[in-house]
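B., you asked whether I could sanity-check this one before it goes into the benchmark set. Here's the sequence:
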Amino acid sequence: MSNPRDYYEVLGVDRSADADTIKKAYRKLAMQFHPDKNPGNPEAEEKFKEAAAAYEILGNAEKKAKYDRFGHQAFQQGGGQGFQNMDDIFSSFGDIFGDFFGGGMGGGGSRSRRSSGPRRGADLRYMAEIDLKDVLNGLEKEIEFETEDSCKNCSGTGADKNSKVETCGTCGGSGQVIARQGFFTMATTCPNCQGAGQSIKNPCKPCKGSGRVALARKIRVTIPPGVDTGTRLRVTGEGEGGLKGGPAGDLYVEVRVKDHESFERDGDHLAASLNVDYVKMILGGEVEVETLSGKHKVQIPKGAQPGDALKLSGQGLPSLRGSRRGDIYFELQAKFPKKVTGDEEKLLKQIQQLKGEDSSSGLGSFFKRKP
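And here's what the prediction gave me:
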């Protein structure tokens, strides 16, 4: 096409259309003008190619940005515009046909052929439970888990050392057999090799021909300071072993921080209750408090009231993204004695008299009351 139409017009979408809308529009046109549905129709074939050329550009974020700015001129010097033949289209967008038609409309077997080769192992997830105190300094933790790995005896091929892997004669190594039903080309799993694309006469005994063996693994992982429940740590290459010599997957360690008996967490800050003798609440003074990093002294202000908050700066938890530490907020609670001595009772009565209050209400009996 010497003067190609506007690609948005070809696909019938607005310039503000998102990637999903563009993909759906192309699928619709691909189905409408597919050669299997329009045999011997050159006009439909051209429209099929035109739609593919439009999707090649608009379906790629980088190419779409260039097209939005410069139009067709951005690709006149060989920027990947257009296709020479149908095979190019099916090779590039076979996944779209496969996703839409459930098994391969025109060249949908390419992914299955790749799947019979080396493949990356699956990622694994492990839940690691730690104490709140471990969040302060981080820790190195040994974890143990079950996984599958490539069989060392056969290097993952599934074949005995004295045997070899042969290409499946039924599917030619693709793992699929192709059948036509009207204008659809359907791909189904090969009944001979069950999709492997290969056949083994003498399977490896340790793995029974699967190329995989169960493995109990034990590794040490470093959990950094500042983590919180839900933090995911990736350990590269420690997941499930690859297939047919492919690379291993990754291990994701998900952290869960156990509840603490005294402290509640709010991000990098901690909160706790602090019981203070009623006299010190009135007169003020110094008290010792327990933190995750040891004991510290704090000053109670004169006339402190129950429910007041007392901040201990820099003694909370570290930030996962920096070196600063949060604070601890103590909620003050007045601590009253269940009993007082005779001298204490006399002094309290004197205070009561100085305040002009009646002491005949039984102050002594109040303190002597059973809990």
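One thing to flag: The mean pLDDT is 81. Otherwise nothing jumped out at me.
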